[in-house]
Structure prediction request, 200 residues.
Amino acid sequence: MDESPNPASVPNMLAHEQTETVLILIDVINDLEFEGGELLLPHALPMAENIAKLKKRTEAANIPSIYVNDNFGQWRSDFSHLIDHCLQDGVRGEPIVRLLKPGKDDYFVLKPKHSGFYLTTLDLLLQYLGAKTLIMTGVAGDICVIFTANDAYMRDYELHIPSDCIASNTVEFNERALQIMERALKADMTPSSQLDLNNL
Prediction:
């Protein structure tokens, strides 16, 4: 039996490059099969299209991606199982996952609660990468994105949260979240198409 450690739980086994900027994708591998998921879908789909375009640009700029994803209470599942579920079980979130399916060089962290930093290896992984600037994207803007952004701000990361790359159940909820993150967390809200990746 192979007794080697699980790479997903040992960030230094994954973090070969050093980079000051990292793309964070929050809860985008998501079946949306929950109360309110039908409200989120029409906002999340254009968001996913924007994130997919941004991710191509960050890959070209050698900026790594970290998928920070809820385990949705499935404590026996892993990230690959969650991806397979979203792609094969006819769930509401399938088109989003197809757009944002992780590549072989992407990192991932499973989170048990709203913040990507709470009881996860995210902080340690970012330290190994040498990250100072985080580009945050994902859902929901007024819940998991803002919780994660708050914890990142408390750790002195510079935050870029493209306004077209987060989504919430309503436009109003999303706008409020953007306003709070811009004012209280000093986050830059430049839309993804205008984000100058070479000068972050």
About this structure: The chain has one domain: 22-199. The beta strands are 21-26, 65-70, 107-111, 133-139, 158-160, 166-167. The domain at 22-199 is CATH 3.40.50.850 (Rossmann fold). The first strand starts at residue 21 and ends at 26.
